[in-house]
Amino acid sequence: MKKIKILVLAMILSLSFALALPTTLINGKVYSGANISTPVVVGATVDVTCNATTLSDTTDVNGYYLVEFDDDICPLGSSASACVGIHCANGIVSDEL
Fold it and tell me: Is 62 within 8 Å of 72 (Cβ atoms)?
C-alpha cells in the first residue's frame, strides 16, 4: 500500500511539471541615480509591462526585481518596459527591456 501511495504521488508531481507553462523572466536592478555607481534602491515597486500586461515586484535588499510572465502573454522576443514609483504614474518609462 505504501508503494502505491508513493507511485501515485510521483505520477501527480510528474503531471504537474508537464502542465507547467513556459515562462518569460524579466529582472533588473534599480539604482538611485543615472548610473551604476549610485546606491541601489531597496523596497521600490517596479512595474514591468509586456504586450499590455503589467506585473509588479518590489526590489530586494540588493535592489533587484524579478517578474515572471506566462509565455503566451510575453513570448521570447517581445518588447517590455519597466518603470519605478512616481515615474509610472507620470507615464515615464525608466527602461526599455
Answer: no
DSSP the chain: -HHHHHHHHHHHHHHHHHHPPPEEEEEEE-BSSSSTTSPB-SS-EEEEEETTEEEEEE--TTSEEEEEEETTTS-TT--EEEEETHHHHTT--SEE-
- Bridge partner list, 26: 67
CA 54 → CA 5, 44, 51, distances in Å?
A: 41, 16, 8
Q: What is the pTM of this model?
A: 0.70
Query: What does the alpha-carbon distance between residue 61 and residue 4 come to, in Å, rounded to a whole number?
Result: 45
Paired with 53 in beta bridges are: 50
Each residue's pLDDT tens digit, 10-51: 444 444 444 567 899 999 999 988 889 999 999 999 999 999
d(CA 20, CA 22) in angstroms, rounded, equals 7
